[in-house]
Amino acid sequence: MQVDIHAPYKDRVNQALSDPNLRVAVSKATDRMTNARLASMGAVEGQLLRTQVRKMKEHVLSNWPDYLEQLETNLTRNGCTVHWAGGIADAQAIVKDIALQNSANLVVKAKSMATEEIHLNHALEQAGLRVVETDLGEYIIQLADEPPSHIVAPVIHKRLEEIAEVFQEKLDMPPTREPTKMTSLARARLREEFFAAGMGVSGCNFAIAETGTICIVTNEGNGRMVSSMPRVYVAVMGIEKLVPTVEDAFLQLQALCRSATGQQLTVYCSMTSGPRQQGDVDGPEQVHVVLLDNGRSRMLARGYGEALLCIRCGACLNACPVYQEIGGHAYGGTYNGPIGAVISPALAPEIAQFKELPHATSLCGACREACPVKIDLPRLLLDLRSDLVQEGASPKTEAWGIKSYASLMNSRRMYENLGKMASIGSNLYAGMSGGNIKFMPPPLNGWTAYRDFAPFAPKSFREWWRQRSKMRGQK
Amino acid sequence: MHKASFQQRPKRVALFVTCMVDMLYPGVGIAACELLEKNDIEVVFPEEQTCCGQPAFNAGYLNEARKLARRFLAVFAPLVESGEVDAVVAPSGSCATMTSHFFEVIFNESRETDLAHQAERLASVTFELTEFLVDVLGIVDTGAQLQGKAAYHPCCHLYRELGVDRQPRTLLDGVEGLEVVDLPHADDCCGFGGLFAIKNSGISAAMGRAKASNAEQSGADAIVLCDVSCMTHINGILSREGIACHAHHIAEILNNHLGSTLRPPSQPAPAQADHPRRWGD
After folding, report:
1. Cα-based distances in Å from B132 to B12, B88, B166
2. Residues in chain A, pLDDT under 50
């Protein structure tokens, strides 16, 4: 069953869990990417690389306004037009106006999470433009009318058979399951779109402040086409995606490629430092850079600045056992997995809009271990849980339960009495059901729906201790 | 986390038995206590101890967590500060993480600097059981004997927050007769996660079933681990799924609580292990 990203959280999770193919597809792919990352980071001094990238990104954030100004100055000097977008509506309007002013009826896009975040395709289509995704994975899900379910592998949730069905239905592909035939077909179709497009749109993996350069990394070369073939090129970048120097850019590039796909370097790294100059044989006539805030400064102000260090490699998704079970769509936002569980609520106007996500984790810490910038994701998730409690966004019964538990546990007498009662009660009950407890009333039925529960011990450790101490004649 | 280095071998420790061991698995507490005593460590059990507050902390209720953290510090810190005990030992990586890692965090958050410092000092002498046996006492062989196959599951807090992994594995390798086999995807979380197991029970159980299926694949008679919370989850799943493998706390194995042979997988699961075995010695 397909996950309906607009359904309530519980429904999305149930839809995801009831699809056995989803788990197979996702866990196979994430395992492969995790193994590739481990091998690739292991081939260099991975820990040192992580430390260096984190330090660099921390430095950027502590001098954020300065570097943004430097970037703007240098982009402008290079002939780019810089636009500042506070939120989704601003960003949509900016890109739409550029397209309309240039009569670009067809827009080709490189894979970009920032444009997903602002629902750009939808906005452009509403304005009567045609938008074509040119990353193979994005192309597939655009044909299937689905959002991406992974930061770097958007179609991770689909198996080859399902992709073949989409191609047969939407592209009139003759029945085949050969990946080379399928990609050749997509390549031929996309080639026509590149030639016809009036505007190219991409995200930005990082921008270099000292040179005013926009960098995008791809493996298919589509990013190079998007940024160089159409007359107009627009890059939409989150305002945290900048690095001070060229050296820093290559440092981040290393960490990004090795952590995302396990490659030493992606096949393409396209760098644009402004429009076509006199004498250039190719390149766009106009380059626009949209600097997108959309909650990022709010996230810093709220105390979640550490999440702004993220370089969007997807390693935390691949490492996450929860993501492996439910895939990306169950998270219900643009970003998913551990980083999505943090930034979906932290970027949103109200944290409570995504109140389930900080709880959609066992806090196992595999994400932090995988993160190339060592973001303490479990800690940020705990902070979000605490913020939700302080905002009164947690269920009343839960609040009552935790407060009662804390009061009981704050008294030795009550603690011991509770233990006795639980022991007698659970043993009587377990006796009736033959050893293990198979059913408990709400809210504990959440446990017994899937697992048995062993009864409390007839005699506690402290009773053993007292008895032994007495026999030994000790206090 | 900075750990104290001992000039002399510690003589006396306070046992932080944890509420789950106290009420649900006293056998684990007894095994931990006897393991320490066998190695000439005198054990003190402060009877005022209850729960460290981890469930409240994990759910985001910091005020309630601080209430229990204050209580914990009031019970344990004076014992260490007066020199009555040299260290605090817990048969749980998760509860040791709460007291020795997150207490400091929650008191810093509330700007209770004195308590944060007290928590930090206590943390430097707080050890998970296997960490204490191996790193502090230098033990590699507890003299345990057990026939059978076991696979080790590294519990997340122990492995990733405390960085304890080599120690329990070393001790297991020292058990005579025990064949230690690899658990596929060993460091994947079992899905327990405290309140997560109730709030997101479907996801939690799916993770638990993945762990159970890996346990089955490993061919082990038993999964060995250092936290009874994860043990409860894994056993709950194994029992519900009818898989003939059982999770055991490492202390029970190291202290010879399981008899001479691990139950072969073909035999049905025994009723809840008997405890305590004896009432005095």
Report:
1. 12, 9, 12
2. none
CA distance A179 to chain B (A): 29
CB contact under 8 A, A468 and B280: yes
Give the position of tokens 């240098």. A74
User: To probe the interface with A, which of B30, B48, B49, B50 has the most A CB atoms within 10 Å?
Assistant: B50
Map out the domains of chain A as residue ranges: 44-294, 307-390, 411-471
Q: Is residue B170 within 8 Å of B134, Cβ to Cβ?
A: yes
Q: How far is CA B58 from CA A381, A402, B53, B61, B195, in A?
A: 10, 11, 9, 7, 8
Strand partners, B14: B44, B88
Residue B155 tokens read as 């519990």
Non-local (6+) Cβ contacts of B7 within 8 A are: none
For CA atoms A256, A259, A260, A263, the dihedral sign is: positive
Q: Does A177 touch chain B (CB under 8 A)?
A: no
Enumerate the residues of chain A whose CB falls inside 8 A of the CB of residue B68. Answer: 406, 409-410
Pick the CATH number of A44-294 from 3.30.465.60, 3.40.50.10420, 3.40.50.2000, 1.20.1250.20: 3.40.50.10420
Q: A106 - beta bridge partners?
A: A130
Q: What is the pLDDT of residues B219-253, one digit of tens each?
A: 999 999 999 999 999 999 999 999 999 999 999 99
Cβ contact B55–A402 (<8 Å): yes
* Structural element, H or E, at residue A199: strand A199-202
ipTM score of complex: 0.95
> How close A143 comes to chain B (CA, Å)?
30
CA A217 to chain centre: 17
B206 vs A325: CB contact, 8 Å cut-off? yes
Q: Domains plus CATH for chain B?
A: 12-135 (3.40.50), 140-254 (3.40.50)
By DSSP bridging, strand A130-133 and strand A106-109 are parallel
Q: Map tokens 């007359």 to a residue.
A: A231
| pLDDT tens, position by position, B145-184 | 999 999 999 999 999 999 999 999 999 999 999 999 999 9
This prediction's pTM: 0.95
pLDDT attached to residue B2: 76
